[in-house]
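Task 17 of the worksheet. Students: predict the tertiary structure of the chain below and write it out as structure tokens. Keep your answer in the requested format; marks are given for formatting as well as content.
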Amino acid sequence: MKKLVALLLAALMLMGVVTSLAQDWPTRAIELVVPANPGGDTDANARALAAALREEMGWDVIVTNMAGGAGAVAFEDVLSNPDPGYRYVLYHSGAVISELFDMYEGYTVLDDFKLTGMPILDYTNAFFINGKNPNFNDLPTMVEYMKANPGKVSFATETGSFTHLHVLAFEEASGAKFNIVDAGTASQKITELLGARLDVIGTQAGLVRDYLETKEFICLGILADERLEARPDLPTFKEQGYDVQFSKFFYVAAPNATEDEIVTKMNEGLQKALENEGFKKYLNGAYLNASYMTPEETEAYYAEQTEIYKGYLSDYID
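Model answer:
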């Protein structure tokens, strides 16, 4: 009997310690691990969100760039060194494609992470060319050139990434074929297009807005249902006869060892960050949408999008 009482007391004490840890969180810096190089949209979004969390919540939030493997390097690093409550991955829907292509070995986002929330939805992904491209200057002339020269036009993506899905969907819709090149993350693709070393890239319109203003880049089309309110001059693929539409969702993922109470607190922090004036200004400037979702809604949305992507990739996956 004494042993049973002792065990119960120990269990209650442990519960008290766990509760105290959750109540006191955070007591040190929180790390957002970003599976991309500096200069891309994922990196920019993470840094803007970190700044908003610092201002609204008083949290010390740092951003660590860890590109490679279409997200695999970052996810695996956080799984191997979780530090529950203090290490998170901030990534986007590209992970769904990577999972469907079996690029993540031994884990999935929904099975091995808790999604704390989805603060950003992006409807601005588009295809861009260099403004001095000698062979075509809009979507119709590019498709005409591609059909006359199959496989000659290069498209920069990162294998297994979100833009990889875009290019496959466009090929199916148009009947034209690209030479698909693995050129790395967004910042690397932009550099390649500026140097005219590749023909077409896919990325977020807000990320290249300065190049659109100087006409160094031309937008072939936005992958959205309708034109952007902030940039009504940019045409959609749909209005040009190709019904290819995607939204890019950004979420914050915690390793499963993270306590549910901390996941809830992180979600509350994300909700407050969306009210931050600096973050609102950033989102408007990048043509992005603020999006509040609970952890449960975020995981349901991720699962729903996975089923949609499976349909697009049915010819490419087992």
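Marker's comment: The mean pLDDT is 92. The chain is about 45% helix and 20% strand.
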